[in-house]
Design a protein that fits this description.
Length: 213
């Protein structure tokens, strides 16, 4: 079986002992502006970042035609292959944007990775707040950081307050942020400020995990 292509951002300065692996969301590739900003920001604070694409997105890149995401079993199997390809779980923090982070959360315990970082977790589909995607999060054992916009349409701060989540999960809210952390102009907060806060919090979380090893 061939290796999954990776997009790697090497760290600036002395590398941290953990590699952060990020998967894309359902509708945008691994080199979307959001993913580029997050990867470069974390590389600038000494983390090696690896990104990959699920099979349907690889096919969309080849054909130029947008396709639907793969089945959950294929998405999970792809994550497990990437963990193995990168040399095993103990030096990895996995996660990603929206769907990519969600699937990472579904394999994290099984894979035995060091930690999990979800960037805008889709707690429910857009416009369907009763269709929750939290059942596995009640028992999650892997240390996890969820970075969430306060007014995320797929799980706002007010909604998340009513969910039962594992004690291993810490949720950090980006002020007035939407699903991609973008605030409204009238909020007094800027998108670069929210992205920098997300990068800072993710880096602090990963350093804590590395120090505990």
């Amino acid at each position: 079986m061939s290796e999954i292509p990776l997009l790697v951002d090497e760290p600036t300065g002395r590398p941290a002992p953990l590699t952060v692996v990020l998967a894309h969301g359902a509708g945008a590739a691994m080199d979307s502006p959001f993913m580029n900003d997050m990867a470069r920001g974390l590389a600038d604070v000494s983390f090696r970042i690896a990104r990959f694409e699920f099979p349907y997105m690889q096919e969309a890149r080849r054909s130029g035609k947008r396709t639907r995401p793969d089945s959950p079993s294929v998405l999970e199997a792809t994550w497990m292959r990437v963990v193995e390809q990168l040399g095993g779980p103990t030096s990895l923090v996995i996660g990603g944007k929206s769907m990519g982070g969600r699937i990472a959360s579904m394999v994290a315990d099984r894979a035995g990775v060091r930690g999990l970082v979800c960037l805008g977790y889709p707690f429910h589909p857009a416009g369907a707040p009763a269709t929750l995607r939290v059942s596995h999060l009640k028992e999650l054992r892997t240390p996890a950081l969820f970075l969430q916009g306060e007014r995320d349409a797929l799980g706002s701060r007010d909604e998340i307050a009513g969910y039962e989540l594992s004690g291993s999960i810490r949720v950090v809210y980006l002020p007035d942020g939407d699903h991609s952390f973008k605030p409204r102009n009238a909020s007094g907060v800027t998108y670069p400020q929210n992205m920098q806060e997300a990068i800072t919090r993710a880096a602090e979380f990963c350093r804590t995990l590395a120090a505990a090893s």
